[in-house]
Amino acid sequence: MNGALLLRRDRSPMPPIAADDPSDPADKRRRTLRRPAGSHGSFGVPDEPPGIARPIPVHDLVGLAGTIFAGERQHLADWFQVGVPPPGSIPCVSLGEEAVLLPLLEVYRGQTHPADDGRAATSLWSQWYFGLLLSPLLLLSAAAGCQGLGAAADIAMVPHATGRPECFVLTRTQSLPAAVEPAAWPRHAALIDGHLAPIIDALARAADLAPRLLWSNAAVAIEFVGSMLTGAGAARIADLCQAPCRPDGVRNPLHRPFGARQEAAGERLRRICCLRYRLEGVERCDTCPVADRRSARPAAPAKA
Q: Which residues lie closer than 8 Å to 283 by C-beta, 6 or more apart?
C-alpha cells in the first residue's frame, strides 16, 4: 500500500501521516520511574515519608490521542478514537467468527467489486483494516511508552456502509508507562499475537487466501509508519519487519515485505503481490512485483 487506497465507488482518501517533529509527544514521551522512598529533592527535604512509595501516574489515552492526532495528523482522529464505541460497532475479537466476518466481506464484494476476484477484494479489505488501524495505534503506543496496546479485545471496528472498516475505537482509556522501555516485540505482542494473527487467520479461511499475503499487507502498513518516524521510534518499528525470526525463534511473518535485491538496486517492490491488479477501477500498486501487472489487468475469472 502506497499511502492511499482509491476505490471505484468509495473514494475515501487515506493520506499518509506526517513526519514527526521535535515537539511531538511521541518523541518526548514521559518515562516516570518509581523513586525510592525517602529520596531527597533539590532542597534536601525528603519527597515523601520513608516507607511510602511515590505512585506512578497513568496516561490518559483520550487526552494523549487528542494531542497526537492534531494538525497535520488530524485525519488520524477520523480513523481511530479512544473511548466508548458508537452503536453498530463490532468488537474486533469477534471478527474471528465466520458469522461476523463473512457478511461484512459479502457486502464489500457486492457493493464495490461484484465482478472481480473475491480473493483480491478480500486482500483490499485487509489493506483498509491495517491502514486505518496501525498508523494511529502505533503512534499512540509510542507516545504512551507502554506495552499491551492493540489487543483485539480492547478495540472495536466501526463498519463503513460498504462493509469495509471505517474507523476503530480503543476502549482502553488509560495505560501505565513502562518503568523500562520495552523492546519492539514485547511492546507489540498484544497487537501481533492478540489481534493481527486472529484476523489474518479468519480472512485467509474466508477467502482461500495465503496467510503470508495478508501478513505482507500488514507489514507494508507497519513499515509505512516506521518511515514516518526517526530515532528510537523508527528503530523499534523496523525491528518488527527486519528480523527473520521472532525472539522466541519462530519465523517472523512480518519479515521484509519488500525485496532486498530490488531495494539494493533502488527499486522498491513487494515480495508478495497483494492482487490489487485484479480489481477494476482500483489504483495499481507502485510496488507491484510483476512489471506487466502495473499497466494491464489480465483476464481472470471471478472467485467468490
A: 4, 5, 6, 276
